[in-house]
Design goal:
The protein has one helix and 14 strands. With about 350 residues, it is mostly beta strands. Strand 4 and strand 5 form a beta hairpin.
Length: about 350
């Protein structure tokens, strides 16, 4: 994780707090929710006009702009190979819902996003038996796709809740698929190019840095990475005014099942069936989100926010699809995604 992303993630984590919220007003008519309840004096006793947790439910659409970084390591001691993916300008359309019971005790929420990977690159490093760098190539990423879906159930915790802005413990399931497609090949040092593999079409193609043995129209790599996750978190809402809501969510992923289909298009030694390498394993992660939602009418609101995801897979089991090749190396994955979003919601 670079310093910029670390600072951004730290700032986002600082937004996760347990603030007190102002009480919602009564909804005698659609617009009276913008007003605070007025005390009524009956004899010598003060009472308040009845109200409810009005317009508690919402449906919405968002646009999420994000960057991601993925590291795929083949063994650490000794080093064998590492692929570093850096993806910029991922653009995702997202639909979401948020429903709660009349007394705000129970909560159900979920989200579904579909998008594409716009720009980026993958650096492919291969190491000699003595640990020195033997191959260093660069390929362009683009025309991949991103898909995710999750749903959670929540229960209000009285010990962490103030007024009518609850803090809920949540639990649910999630799914993430990130398909990364690399094209072209640029040599970063002489002697590179082992992406072709033993017996490949051009195993010693790099004679000088900057050489381009494969153009950007040639597909060289594809990774179809998928996570199925168990989610446990806290969801907090703070309403400083009737119109404004500050919502924070922190989710731990104690268990994630990971699969990756790895296709090497220029490796005839790995066979022609794709993907020619499959990795499976278990990992864990963390997901943070913070947003501001502002009601422009009693029913409609606009929201902006930020989101950070991180997953780790310490070790995977590897299968070579086309050949019975035993793997004596340990494989590991690290994945992070960071971005900002904006959206519109309908409250009912």
């Amino acid at each position: 994780m670079n310093l910029k992303n670390l600072s951004f993630a730290g700032a986002l984590l600082c937004l996760i707090a347990w603030p007190a919220a102002a009480a919602l007003a009564d909804n005698t008519s659609p617009w009276t929710q913008w007003q605070q309840p007025t005390p009524t004096i009956a004899t010598n006793q003060i009472t308040y006009s009845p109200g409810r947790f009005g317009h508690n439910d919402e449906l919405g659409l968002r646009y999420w702009y994000s960057d991601s970084e993925i590291s795929y390591n083949v063994s650490q001691n000794p080093k064998v190979s590492r692929l570093d993916y850096k993806i910029d300008n991922s653009q995702t359309g997202e639909a979401y819902f948020r429903l709660s019971s009349a007394n705000a005790r129970y909560l159900v929420k979920g989200s579904l996003g579909i998008g594409g990977e716009q720009n980026g690159n993958v650096m492919n490093y291969d190491y000699n038996p003595n640990g020195s760098l033997g191959s260093d190539t660069n390929s362009t990423l683009g025309k991949g796709n991103l898909f995710y879906a999750y749903s959670d159930l929540g229960y209000k915790l009285d010990s962490l809740s103030w007024s009518q802005a609850p803090t809920s413990v949540t639990g649910g399931l999630g799914y993430l698929q990130d398909v990364m497609i690399a094209r072209g090949l640029t040599c970063e040092q002489a002697g590179s190019g082992s992406i072709y593999g033993p017996g490949g079409t051009n195993p010693s193609s790099c004679t000088a840095p900057g050489q381009v043995p494969e153009g950007s129209d040639i597909k060289v790599l594809q990774n179809d990475a998928e996570w199925a996750t168990l989610r446990i978190g806290l969801d907090n809402n703070y309403q400083p005014t009737t119109r404004l809501t500050w919502r924070n969510e922190i989710v731990a992923v104690p268990l994630a099942y990971f699969y990756d289909g790895d296709s090497h298009y220029l490796r005839p030694d790995l066979g022609i069936l794709l993907p020619n390498i499959m990795d499976r394993g278990y990992g864990y992660g963390l997901q943070l989100e913070s947003l501001l939602d502002y009601k422009i009418t009693p029913r409609w609101s606009l929201n902006i926010g930020a989101r950070f995801w991180q997953f780790w897979v310490p070790e995977t089991k590897t299968k070579y699809v086309n050949a019975d090749i035993p793997s004596s190396h340990s494989y590991s994955w690290s994945y992070q995604r960071l971005g900002a979003f904006a959206g519109v919601a309908y409250h009912f």
